[in-house]
Structures are given as C-alpha cells and as structure tokens.
Specification:
Layout lengths: L2 H24 L10 H15 L1 H8 L5 H14 L1 H19 L3 H21 L6 H7 L1 H9 L16 H12 L7 H22 L1 H15 L6 H4 L6 H28 L7 H19 L6 H13 L9 H27 L8 H4 L6 H12 L11 H25 L6 H17 L11 H11 L4 H22 L1 H11 L5 H5 L6 H10 L5 E5 L11 E3 L14 H11 L1 E6 L11 H21 E7 L2 E6 L2
Parallel strand pairs: 1-2, 1-3
Antiparallel strand pairs: 3-5, 4-5
C-alpha cells in the first residue's frame, strides 16, 4: 500500500474512532446541545483526548503490543458503530453547507482547501524533522517494542506527558511505517474548524475567516509555526487544539449561564448547558496539559479566567467553582504524573530535584538543566552570567505581566473578556516560568487572532477581501518556497521513490542508521555523539549525548564518562566531530561542542575500534 493510501485511511479511521469515543463520552455531560457541527467538533476533540489512554493503560498493564492495540481499536469500532454512524451523518450535513457557499467565502474555502491539501502531502511523508526523530517518535517505538512503560536513559522529555505520542503508537501498531504526521494535521484542521465555528458565534462567519487569514499571515512562513507543524511529527498543534476548545467552551459556558438567567423567569432553568460547557472547558484544559509540560499553564490560566467571571455567580460559590474546575483538569492529566513517579521517583522529573529526587539525576544536573534553557535568552554581545540571565528573565516576566494586565483592563467589559483573560494569564505564566520561545505561545495564538478579528468586526467590508487576497498570495508563496519538498513528498507518497531515497538527502546520518540496523540487534545500546541525534531511526537503543539536558552521562573526568557509559550499557559510539557553522555564535551549542566533542574523541582513541564511516559519521565499537 502506498503512503498516500495508508495515510488517508489512517486519517479517516482516527477521525471516525475519535468521533465515536467522544460521542459516547459527551453523553456523560448530560448536555442539551443538539446534533450539530459544534457538537461533532466537541465529540471529536474529546475523543482524540480520550484515545491516548488506550495505549497508556495497555502499556501500564504490560500488554501494549501492536497486536493487542490493534485488537482493542477494532473492538472500539464495533462497540461504537452507532455513535460513528451519527457522526458521519452530521459531517455530511456540515459539508453540504460548506459546498453551497458563494462569493468571497467560496474563494476562501478553495484557497484554504488547496493549502491544506499541500500540507497533507507533507504530513503523509516519512518524518524527517529533528524533534520528532529525537523523541516524539522514539517514545512510542520503544514502548511498542517493550509492550510496557520503560524508562529511557538520557532522553529526558520521554518522561513528560505525551498524549500525541500515544496516538502515534496507535498508528504505528497498525503499520510500523505509518505516517504519524496525519495526527498533527488532524489536530490542526480541527483547530481551524474551531476558529471558523466560534468566530461565527462571536459575530458572524467573516470573523472566523478573517482570524484564519490572520493566523496564516502571522506564522505561515515559520519553520516551527502552526501551519508547518501540521505537516510534521511535532506535537504543538495538539496543545493548541485543546487550549482553543478549553477557552471557547468556558466562554460558551458564560454565555449559556447568562441565557439561563434570562429564561428562568419564563421558560425554566437552562443551567445544564452552562454546566456542561464549563466541565468540558476544564477537561480540555487537562487534555492540553497531557500534550506537554507547558500545557499545565492552560489549567492555571483557565482557572484564573474562571475567577474573573465570578460576577456571574454568587461570591460564596466562587471558591468552590475554582477548586472543582481545577480539580477536573488535574484529574485528567494526573495519570501521566503518576506514571512518571513510578518510573523515575519524581512526578515532574527532573524538576524540583531537591524535593523529589529522581533516577539518574543530581541537584547539580538540575541546575545545569535550568541554565540550558535560560542561556538561550542571552542578549547579543553579552555573556550568560547568572546576573545577566536573571535580569533578562525578570524583564521578560514583567513584560508578560504588563501584557496580561493591559489586556485584562482593556477588555474588562468586553464580550471577549474570558478568552482574552485566558490568553493574558497564559502569556504571563510562560514569560515568568519558562525561557522565552515564541513557539510556547502557539496554544493561544488562534484565540488571539479571533479576538483581534472581533475587535475589527466593524471593518469587515474594508479588511476581509484584502486579507483573503493576502492569504491566497502567501499560500502561493508557500507552494513556491516548498516546491522541491512538495515534489519529493508527492513522489514518495505515490511510490515513485522509496522511503530510503526520500530520507537520505534530509537526514545526515541516514546511511549510518541503516548500517547499524543491518548489523546490530535492537538490544544494542549506542550513544549518538552529534549535535543532531536522529534517535528514532536507529533500531538499537540509541541515547542522547547532550550534557545540558540529561544527567546520566558526564564528560569530565574521562574516568567518570567511561563509568557512566558502562553503567547504562553503551557498547557502540556514533561520532561526528563537526558541529554546525553557527555553533560558535551560540552559547548553548558552543558549550556542547567544547564539552562533548573532546571527551568523545578521547574515548574513541582509548576504547574504540572504527567499524564504519559515512557522511562524516564514524561508528566505533567500545571495548571495556
């Protein structure tokens, strides 16, 4: 089967299964929301969040083999057949409405559809981006191989909440070369659907369309932005979708509550719809936290925004509401922290080492880990001294606080004060608790664009057509910029070139991975001594070398390096001594180069025997 057919089949199958699971779960909320495109969206997103727990618990019970996971999914399809049938019926009705649009709306639909088709082309291709090959794809592959939860030395992020990686495991259990990029693609499409739907509810169809156009104008050309991540194996579109749904479910709950108050005098209480949306909001916030650690700030931001809306309820109920909402969200994500505690001894490994400790980690290592992130924000022409890094962090934190307070004040009487409040508090949390990285703000960008479009709603006739034209032009520019990549994707998806021919020019150590896979068994432990480490392509138990981000392997003195490698069972070393040209200008990269490379060269001379060389990489067998 070609990648195109496999990817499309898995994309449709995942949507059907998630819609069925979500439809069954949504009944638990006793919502009076009738069958509609909005209900279908809520069901699908809720189902996607719930499906992560299928492989999660199968791994927990040590039966997470591909065969068992496939059997479980087949059983779910059979049991949920009525719910899936209802979802298909609603989807048909929704698409029939879309096909009837005219005028400028049709232009937008055609342009957006063409853009999504191009992104899907890349999503179906074999994964080649760095983060995915580092750990997003590595985690599900290692777990499927073991059939249970395992601790993976040195690859620290594999101990964090990883809901999208669990969905990757679902697809990889169907076929070992499944195009996992269809999952970020599906999350991205659902995010766009949410923007269009809730934009319409805010003030008309044009708000959603304008917001989507603004989102493309904002980061359509970014290599790690929302649109490009839809075509890769990264996971931020998952955080973005759950966050967007959490914000607008909370917003809908406030609107439903006001409507219920108005109806009480004449038609009875409509409160259940308000309660259902509020419960969904915190469930989605908890699901956002299951995608990555920064998703925890979605729970904090939603809780604070809920407090801001306290004037809608009696003051005596405010504290109870806050605790119940936050409690629901924490309950959703708690299984991940329990799992991490059982594997490492620290529920938020490796943070707060002095309090919790943790396997293969020290207090010194945690200090180095924190510095590794702060050092990225060193001002130009400055040294990353503790004093400078502290001052920069404080400036970033205070800037986030100022943005938050200004947004809250400006929208204190606005109909969009709840979405703005969540976005503002989330911004402050990221600025004060993390190092500054624009990608960390992606979860709230769709909401920001919707609120911006809402504020410009009176300029619809003047702004919408230019925005649509810019959207089309930038889409054409995307096609031209990525023409060679899109052509290669089309060729590999249709079988005109092999997976190997596609990956070889994109992955520097691809030849090395193939040699190691052909000559060594999967239980072999190998250290990848390079700046970029494409761990997932090795069938062997490949480990990170990054001295900043792990504390299992130390580089000085040489005797400690050798002792650490023997302890974790390393018998092979892949070494590349040349780092990227820009490395000398990066404090983070330069310290890696100056710390790791000399130590590994000395190790290869003392303990290594060269076995194979390809593209600047040398494979050594280590003799202890």
């Amino acid at each position: 089967m070609s990648l195109a057919l496999l990817g499309l089949a898995e994309l449709v199958g995942l949507w059907l299964l998630s819609a069925g699971v979500g439809g069954r779960l949504l009944r638990l909320f006793r919502s009076s929301l009738s069958a509609s495109f909005e209900r279908l969206l809520l069901e699908t997103v809720l189902g996607l969040g719930a499906l992560q727990f299928v492989p999660f618990f199968l791994f927990a019970f040590r039966v997470g083999t591909p065969g068992v996971i496939r059997g479980t999914m087949l059983l779910l399809f059979v049991v949920l057949a009525p719910d899936i049938r209802d979802a298909v019926k609603v989807a048909k009705q929704g698409f029939s409405v879309i096909l009837k649009v005219t005028g400028w709306r049709r232009v937008f639909v055609i342009a957006l559809s063409a853009l999504l088709a191009l992104i899907l082309l890349r999503a179906i291709s074999p994964v080649s981006d760095g983060d995915a090959l580092d750990y997003h794809l590595t985690l599900p592959l290692r777990l499927l191989e073991a059939g249970r939860w395992v601790y993976i030395p040195t690859i620290t992020p594999t101990n964090w909440p990883s809901s999208l990686e669990m969905l990757y495991a679902l697809l990889l259990s169907v076929h070992p070369e499944s195009p996992i990029g269809v999952i970020p693609f599906l999350f991205g499409v659902l995010t766009l659907a949410a923007m269009l739907l809730y934009g319409r509810k805010l003030g008309g169809a044009w708000i959603g369309i304008f917001a989507v156009s603004l989102l493309w104008i904002y980061d359509g050309s970014s290599s790690v932005g929302f649109w490009n991540q839809m075509g890769t194996g990264m996971i931020d579109t998952g955080t973005t979708l759950f966050t967007t749904l959490a914000i607008f479910a909370l917003h809908r709950s406030t609107l439903a509550h006001k409507s219920a108050q108005e109806k009480e005098s004449s038609e009875g209480n409509g409160e259940p719809l308000s309660i259902a949306f509020r419960l969904l909001a915190f469930v989605f916030a908890g699901l956002a936290a299951t995608t990555k650690l920064t998703g925890v700030w979605v729970i904090v931001a939603l809780t604070m925004a809920d407090f801001i809306g306290k004037d809608l309820y009696p003051f005596s109920a405010t504290f109870r509401r806050i605790l119940s909402g936050a409690g629901i969200a924490v309950a959703v994500v708690s299984a991940w922290f329990v799992k991490t505690f059982l594997l490492t001894g620290n529920p938020i490994y490796p943070a707060f080492h002095k309090l919790f400790g943790g396997i293969e980690w020290t207090a010194e290592g945690w200090t180095r880990y924190q510095r590794a992130h702060m050092i990225r924000n060193t001002p130009p022409n400055s040294l990353p001294t503790p004093e400078i890094l502290f001052k920069v962090h404080m400036v970033i934190g205070l800037t986030g606080l100022a943005i938050c307070l200004f947004a809250l004040w400006r929208t204190r009487r606005s109909p969009v004060r709840v979405p703005v409040a969540v976005a503002g508090v989330f911004t402050f949390c990221i600025c004060i608790a993390n190092y500054f990285l624009p990608r960390f703000f992606m979860p709230i960008i769709p909401t920001v664009m919707l609120c911006l479009a809402y504020t410009l709603r009176k300029s619809e006739k003047r702004l919408l057509i230019p925005a649509t034209i810019v959207f089309c032009l930038l889409g054409f520019g995307y096609t031209q910029k990525n023409r060679s990549d899109l052509l290669a994707s089309a060729r590999v998806n249709t079988g005109f070139i092999s997976r190997a021919d596609y990956l070889r020019p994109l992955v520097n150590d691809y030849e090395m991975t193939q040699y190691v896979n052909a000559h060594f068994p999967p239980e072999t432990v190998i250290l990848i001594g390079d700046y970029d480490h494409d761990i997932a392509l090795y069938h062997a138990q490949a480990l990170w070398p990054d001295f900043w981000l792990q504390d299992a392997i130390h580089y000085t003195p040489q005797s400690l390096l050798e002792a650490d490698l023997r302890r974790v069972g390393v018998t092979l070393l892949v070494l590349k001594t040349e780092f990227p040209d820009w490395c000398a200008k990066s404090h983070y990269c330069r310290e890696r180069m100056e710390t790791e490379t000399p130590a590994l060269i000395a190790l290869a001379k003392r303990r290594g025997k060269a076995l194979y060389t390809a593209n600047g990489f040398v494979l050594y067998r280590l003799t202890w």
